Give the backbone structure.
Amino acid sequence: MIDKILEILVPVLLLTGLGVLFAGILAWANVKFKVEKDPKIDEILAVLPGANCGACGFAGCAAFAEAVASGEGTVNGCPVGRQKVAQEISNIMGVELE
Amino acid sequence: MGLVMIFFGAIFFNNFIFNRFLGICPFLGVSKRLDTSVGMGIAVGFVMTLASTLTWLLQKLLDLWHVEYMQTIVYILVIAALVQFVEMFLQKVSPTLHKALGVYLPLITTNCAILGIAILNIDLGYGLLEAVIHSLGASVGFTLAMVILAGIREKLELSDIPEAFTGIPIALITAGILAMAFTGFVL
């Protein structure tokens, strides 16, 4: 009986342990190698649908947010989010939605 | 002697791209320009060497606890974490290279050359030192293949090729001929 339980427990604990270990290392690296970015990028990213569908013509939601923040992309460039998302992005960017 | 053979064998006789056909995606994707191809080669080499060291050590743990069937999932976890680390590091150290590599950088996670070498090291029964030398050789071989193709593709940009062959098709033909050249290395 104890063998059977261990058979399940060992792999679960092993993967959990490794996952937590790597998460810790990555969290440390995230602080250590932090890059100063435009705070608008994160704000825009938060209101986007996050599907990374690429329908806007950029590589993903992060790339689209970056483009909008730098002025390259248009605030209503996300076809998935429609009017609602476009409105929120234009609020963040501080421009009028036409 | 054995280590020297493993090293050069991984570069020429068993070149990961031309003989084992692993890691083709970045090979075609990032070989448009010479400088990005070198950057990609180094990034893949770094992940390869570190991943095969870590996975070799973890394999001992898997053997010890008799959960060898977990090999693939554990290896992928190690590789994914390493790639994430490399991405953060590159973004800090060289934003231009980070931008040039683009989506191909996170795609190293699913690069079969990396999982391939980690599993090959175990299947071939290599020790830790042999595994590290093998992956160093493989990364040099990978970079070599990338640089050769990138060099040719830069020249192809300027040459007069039929319109239907421009871009990826001519790159595939070039890669095929290169692979044939590499089969000339026989022990």
Summary: Chain A has a mean pLDDT of 85.
